[in-house]
Specification:
Pfam families: HTH_1, LysR_substrate. It contains twelve helices and eleven strands. The chain is of the alpha/beta class and about 300 residues long. It has three domains: about 80 residues, Arc Repressor Mutant, subunit A (Orthogonal Bundle), CATH 1.10.10.10; about 90 residues, D-Maltodextrin-Binding Protein, domain 2; about 110 residues, D-Maltodextrin-Binding Protein, domain 2.
């Protein structure tokens, strides 16, 4: 059968499986969407099996498609490894994608530590809040805000999302606050720093107060609101007010007491940040080391 199927068809199929999008697969291979579609259709006809189905606007692999995708990816990876001795330099580039807040507050310092111990590996960080870009299988690793499941990524928990009000020691001192005894209704009357909710599952101050057993009666009106979560945290570090801290993302600031938790009310949202590896291809040696490095610190 192989003598009747062009090897190029398997490269096209692999790209289509990684992106779950014929247009993006075509851009990677420098061919048109129509050419990708023709290759996939021809492969299905040669094999006598349906490889993809459509669910609304989204593609999904059939059970036969999943089995073939795993075998094609394993074969292409074997060929890549076989060609390694013929390449010069021995320098590996890997890519990881994460949201702006994760990149700024948690990931950047850990990538620096990894870089110091792995001079032969170059890490490319894609910082984006667009879900489609974060979950693109063009990335080697991803950090996703999730409940722990994704159709194209194997996810390992990095940290739960537990939200608490936090402020700097300077703000606490200026306002004469007792961090351990302050009540939610008192917090609601102080200078609140909020952020825009780009994801329907994100929690800002209004939702946090609303989920308390006894919500404050006062209207929640943040004094400052920033376009990103990391900017809100930076403002709190400067002593400009109180923001919601995700305890995992600001663990270093809590440990160093540059931010201090206010009150005793914590909200576990059921979401969290997860480190993802591709379901349909194996990691390179450098990506495996980075994966292990990021998990070793949790």
């Amino acid at each position: 059968m192989l003598d009747r199927i062009p090897l190029e068809a398997f490269r096209v199929y692999d790209a289509a499986c990684r992106f779950m999008n014929f247009s993006r697969a075509g851009r990677e291979l420098h061919i048109t969407q129509a050419a990708v579609s023709r290759r996939i259709q021809g492969l299905e006809e040669q094999l006598g099996a349906k490889l993809f189905t459509r669910r609304g606007r989204n593609l999904a692999l059939t059970s036969e498609g999943e089995r073939l995708a795993q075998r094609v990816r394993a074969t292409l990876e074997y060929l890549e490894e076989s060609l390694e001795p013929f390449r010069g330099g021995g320098f590996e580039t890997i890519s990881i994608a994460a949201s702006g807040s994760v990149s700024h507050l948690w990931l950047a310092k850990r990538l620096k530590d990894f870089d110091n111990g792995n001079p032969s590996v170059s890490v490319r960080l894609l910082t984006t809040d667009a879900p489609s870009e974060l979950a693109s299988e063009a990335n080697d690793l991803v950090i996703l805000y999730s409940t722990g499941e994704h159709p194209r990524w194997n996810l390992t928990p990095l940290m739960k999302e537990v939200l608490v009000p936090v402020a700097s020691p300077d703000f606490i001192q200026r306002n004469g606050l007792n961090p351990a005894l302050i009540r939610p209704d008192e917090i609601a009357r102080l200078d609140l720093i909020d952020y825009e909710r780009f994801n329907a599952h994100w929690i800002s101050f209004r939702q946090w107060f609303a989920r308390l057993a006894i919500p404050p009666k006062a209207r929640i009106a943040p004094r400052l609101s920033f376009s990103t979560y990391s900017l809100a945290v930076d403002a709190a570090l400067r002593g400009e007010g109180i923001t919601l801290g995700s305890t995992g993302l600001i663990a270093d600031e809590l440990a160093s007491a540059t931010l201090i938790e206010l009150g005793t009310h914590r909200l576990d949202t059921g979401y969290g940040y997860h480190l993802g590896t591709p379901r349909y291809r194996s990691l390179t040696p450098g990506a495996i080391r980075l994966h292990q490095h990021l998990l070793s610190g949790i």
